[in-house]
Amino acid sequence: MKRWKASLVLTLVAAAVLAVGSSPVVASTPDDTRATSTSSSSTSYVPISGAGSSWSANAIDQWRRNVQQFGMRVNYASTGSSDGRNQFRTGTVDFASSEIPYGLSDSGVVDTPPSRKFAYMPIVAGGTSLMYNLTVGSQRITNLRLSGETVARIFTGDITSWDDAAIKADNPGITLPARRIVPVVRSDGSGTTAQLTAWMASEHPRIWDAYCARAGRPTPCGQTSNFPVISGTGFVGQPGSQGVSGYVAQRANVGTITYVEYSYAIKTGYPVAKLLNKAGYYVEPTASNVAVSLLGARINNDPSSQAYLTQILTGVYRNADPRTYPLSSYSYLIVPTAVEGNFTTAKGSTLGAFAYYFLCEGQRQAETLGYSPLPINLVKAGLEQVRKIPGVQAQSIDIRSCKNPTFSSDGTNTLAKNAPMPPECDRRGSTVQCSDGTGGAAEQPTQPGPGASDGGATDGSGTGTDTGVDGLPVDGGGIGGDGGATGGGPAICEIDTGACQTVAAIPVEIERVDAGWTRESTYMALALIAVLLTALAPPALARWVRATRSGS
Amino acid sequence: MLAIMLLVGIFLAIRASDALSVAGWSFFTEQAWEPDTGRFGIVAIIVGTILIALVAIIVAVPLASACALYITQFAPQRIRGTLISLVDLMAAIPSIVFGLWGFFWLQGEVVPVAKWISQNLGFIPIFAVRGADPNDPLAPTTVFTSSTFIAGLVVAMMVTPIITSIMREVFDQAPIGEREGALALGATRWSMITSVILPFGRAGMIGGSMLGLGRALGETIAVYIIISPVFEIQPRILENGAISVSSLIALRYGEATQFGMSALMAAGLSLFLMTLAVNFAASFIVARSRSGASS
């Protein structure tokens, strides 16, 4: 008893030491420029709570950890945008986060705005990325490229195999395995699903409506927060961004693909597909590419409108800039603008200070987290929105002190202006395919596959960029094709045409199913016998012993 | 006690009446769950719930019986206390922890087992898996994940400690006189167990299992994390796709409209009635079985 008590005390002491040891770590989180915005660090804040989008949750979580040093306690539950909007409507949370506004129709049901007064405030930009888990032999593919139509057909169950001709056409440089594609979709009501389906409904309505009709939804389907799943098609549903990315990131789940914010791919260390844009380039949702794309977003600029500051993304889907990532969007906070229900001016003070923090300094961290910072016009508008929160201690912030990477002296978006153009190997039709990794797997380039026509890989002599040299017309990748034979694996060339093809196989493992009696079978039989023995022998033995004893 | 249960039942019935009056009898035949379009029913969900609970019970009861017997009859006196507190400790692990463990670790380890079962026993319909082709080396193993089987295994881990502690209490109460009598008459320890302990504890074993079943039926968050919800009767327990009433409620209550909430209440009501039925059946079995020394 005494010893037990002693160990308890020891445990308690250890726990206390740990707690003390870890608190300075929290306080010194990356961004420790103290209080340009939160000058009122001496004021005491009451805790506030919010819920909603898991798309933007990685950013919100980082920000609320950062503001702990100012004494603000912000609780946030990333339960999905639909849940967030619902909880805000019923008044159980002080603020909500959502990708889509209230009032949109989803399968014929209108998501009615709450009766309490509210306003939208943009918080961060980002790209809905297509994170996947695909290997060939033992090598992970990290440079997959997909066109919009292919993505739509994958998520409607039309393309079911990774070696489908449509995917091959997008990826001339990868040898694709004949694996089933397993689309992983959100099982809860989600703003990410709404973003993806809005894009499909706008850009590929025929494919999307046909799928919706098969799933028993009324068409035209439009955007929906609940992805319809047809049973038996091999789709997997998981709750939350954490759920879908966690599922794809399980090593054994090869062949899966999901749609999730870029930051989750970075966090789990998995690659994302480069998506084809209108300019014919395959593009990754990096911070600068997202910033460029969103120059095409149409923002509601009517301050008297209920939907002030909300986005219309058609211009992003069709943005003709070669750096555009078509699935870019903003995420919003829904904040109360009147003291109603549980919301008080004291809470408004905390919420306002928190908003000042993330609109200004917080944006600097967006890029490292896997998001993209807000442009100057939205930061300005957002700062105006903060003033509508009751109880806020209004501050006039000099936005130049925010060091937001998009700001410039002449009002243009610096991040977008300086965004690098995509390399030639990312152009559709280029004979070479970039081999660098993407997303969380940026450090792992994919070696050109053995069967790939990696023509220009030798010296790039014939790729399209060289056409102007010496004024000699060089037709496309025609010459580069000759170099292909050197790229891995033996090659067979046809003598009359000169066309070469590399011959190589993808190593696979197969279990011998109908191989008759193998050693495994023997072990299994032995194990079965052992189990039966342990179960049956003791009672049988006992009975036998009893019988012999009573007999004697 | 009874009054509280009655109140819960009445509350659920009132809240559910809205949805039930719209759905009518189709509530018991429709498999889909889309309350806002008027197409929703309980049948697929109830079947899914029962399947998960059955898998859990089939795994947990033998395991718990063995544990309880070992602790009460075989374990040396020195380590008995430790074992008992270990089992109780296991009962105290929150279900979210079990869920995360199941999702991130167990799932990967169980897939080969599920694969083996489906390949060798696939001719039995419940072990069949659509989309699994053993001759295709690149066939995705994802068809074996997020299944009724894996959810059932995790729930089994959660109900085992409860069943074990009830059985242990019961076995401990076996009259010392009869036990020592059997041993004095020359019985081995095992035959003493089969002739004294087990008959004496039968009612307790059934009661414990039923209590475990009740908890397995209602287990929410671990199931919610693991399964990939499907809304059809899906009897292939190894195949991706499962559903249970409580995980459906956890999944949908946040985003439900007022009518959707009423439909969820109706689902909750049917789970409530089913659990009641199970518990009544348990007490009926316990009352009818011999011994009566414990219940």
TrEMBL record, chain A:
Residues 38-360 form the PBP domain. GO terms for cellular component: ATP-binding cassette (ABC) transporter complex. The lineage of its organism: Bacteria, Bacillati, Actinomycetota, Actinomycetes, Micrococcales. Residues 408-483 are annotated as: Disordered. Keywords: Membrane, Phosphate transport, Signal, Transmembrane, Transmembrane helix, Transport. The keyword Cytoplasm does not apply. NCBIfam families: 3a0107s03. This is Phosphate ABC transporter phosphate-binding protein. Residues 1-27 form the signal peptide. Belongs to the PstS family. It comes from the Bacteria. Residues 452-465, 474-483 have a biased composition (Gly residues). The chain crosses the membrane at residues 523-542. InterPro entries: ABC_phos-bd_PstS (IPR005673), PBP_domain (IPR024370), Phosphate-bind_PstS (IPR050962). GO terms for molecular function: phosphate ion binding. The keyword Kinase does not apply. It comes from Microcella frigidaquae. GO terms for biological process: phosphate ion transmembrane transport. Pfam families: PBP_like_2.
